[in-house]
Amino acid sequence: MNGHPRVILASASPRRRELLTLVGIVHEVRPANADEMRHANEAPMAYAERVAADKARAIAITDPEAVVIAADTIVVVDGDVLGKPAGVAEARVMLRRLSGRMHIVHTAIAVSYRGQLVSAVESVDVTMRSLSDHEIDAYVATGEPLDKAGAYGIQGFGATIVEQVHGDYFSVMGLGLRRLVALIESFGLRYDFRDGIVAR
Questions:
Q1: So what CATH class is 7-199?
Q2: Taking the complete model, does pTM exceed 0.70, yes or no?
Q3: How confident is the model at residue 2 (pLDDT cuts 50, 70, 90)?
Q4: Cα dihedral sign for 104, 84, 172, 120?
Q5: Which residues are catalytic?
Q6: Angle ∠(23,24,29) on CA atoms, nearest 5
Q7: Would you say 155 and 173 are in contact if contact means Cβ atoms under 8 Å apart?
Q8: pLDDT tens-digit readout, 78-128
Q9: Interacting residues of 113 by C-beta distance below 8 A, sequence separation 6+
Q10: Domain boundaries in the chain?
Q11: Which residues of 15-25 are buried (b: 16+ CB within 10 A; e: fewer)?
């Protein structure tokens, strides 16, 4: 069977939209609501994977014939999960904590199609260069850190403060494309460079 299943991105993230477009996956955007509070004693990777899966399920319930893609990205340092900062003050605290150190970015991806759901987590070691208080204040003033896990975005101004990335760069952006294609193809679908997602 040939054809192009509809693809829905269950996220309002502009970065994730850009990445799907980058590799030619035509999609519509339908942000999903899910419980994003971390449960007691929930391990960081399990937390990210649960949130991504819940987002995918929320959309798949009303559109089971579509390929629903959801993701969740968290930053972990010293075992603590750093989500999106509540404001400027918390963004500064997060950046001071990450300054000059290595942390882990976990990006979970969940894909639902025809009543089935698959998910995986990509983990990447990221080292941030040492930042002065002036640099932190200047970066926070751009507004970029305020809607990003860990208070930075590697694809924007934050590219100038990241020293090393050991792992999948696109996962740090919020959507590991290699992992996504593998999950989609586990349903028997096929990714084509020219045609995007194709039914076999």
A1: alpha beta
A2: yes
A3: low
A4: positive
A5: 72
A6: 100
A7: yes
A8: 999 998 999 999 999 999 999 999 999 999 999 999 999 999 999 999 999
A9: 5, 60, 66, 67, 68, 184, 187, 189
A10: 7-199
A11: bbbebbeeeeb
